[in-house]
Design a protein that fits this description.
Blueprint (H helix, E strand, L loop, with lengths): L3 E8 L22 E4 L5 E4 L6 E3 L2 H9 L6 E4 L13 E2 L9 H6 L4 E4 L5 H9 L4 E3 L6 H15 L2 H22 L6 E6 L2 E3 L4 H8 L3 E2 H4 L5 E3 L2 H7 L3 E5 L9 H4 L2 H4 L3 E4 L1 H4 L6 H12 L1 H7 L4 E4 L15 H4 L20 H10 L9
Helix pairs in contact: 4-5, 5-12, 5-13, 12-13
Amino acid sequence: MYRPVLLAVVVLTAAFVPAVAGAQTAEGDCSFPVERTDVTGTEVRVTEEPTRVVTLNPSAAQTMWEIGAQEKVTGVTKYASNLDGAAEKTNISGAGQTINNEEVVGLEPDLVLAPNTVSNDTVGTLREAGLTVYRFQEAESIDDIKRKTAIIGELTGECAGATETVEWMESRLATVDQAVEGTDRPDAIYVFFSYTSGQNTFIHTLIERAGGNNIAADADIDGYKPVNQEVIVNRNPEWLLLNSDWDEVPKTAAYNSTTAVQEGNVLVINQNHLNRPAPRVVYALTAMAETFHPEAYAAANTTDTTTATSTATEDTTAETTADPSEQTPTTAEPTAGGGSPGFGLVAALLALAAVTAGLVTAGRDG
């Protein structure tokens, strides 16, 4: 019988040293107007500090919450409902994964933040309606997430909050890097339904940075692919990594034979952290590092932290339906950015249907 472990790292105290990020004064305050060219090649000009911001994907919403700008947010998608206070915002989701453009326009936002999973048509329609829309490039790494956080701070007049968030991320990353340096790497594999994340996926980079060895990459799996049962048997992972949207170990003889299942080494990671290219992805990384190397992590940890069950953090108390646009293999448009960040997978039926159609690519969200 395996024993899944759900970890959430809650940072209680941290020392921040503000640094210049984007258009800031010497005191760390933003200055306006701000002009930036987005991934579509459009020069976006924000003339004065926005007071009404609409976010078109949960990653942008999460970033606004993290930098302390949630009061400026007037509209979010239904998939951002895990954020504390998001229920008080207007739901701008349309049918399926679409955006209700009329709802967005009706909110009269000063600024619309559009991660790269949002379609060209949606961005164009909102711009034609006179709205200022900034569309982000694909986030392929934690460094990309830090840059995206700084840009959002700059565009929304929250430079100090964005700087503190990036500094907090860097502090946690430094702790992880120190903890795993020179350690033996346990074999691990991420499993979601019958899929895993191999080379050239964001989750692969997290496993490796957390001090684990991704056996899917060892087996020459590239991107998100179904994992062969022989790989599980032959590679015999010491740890199975699941996300909280599907936290069941596959009930097969192959998985049951692994050291991970035999010893109860199953780590369930909050999907709102693992699958969204936003600051809280650091929680997923630290959960893995602390699990793989508990003693080394404790010795390296220089800030006060606590680990707890799902009741400890706002975005695990009420798990919501995972946002397919941030988890999926998709057919995002070329202007949305290339590569494969890999923030998870969509539910099995959607993924299998996409495979059948020959349309599976890596999930994208900038």
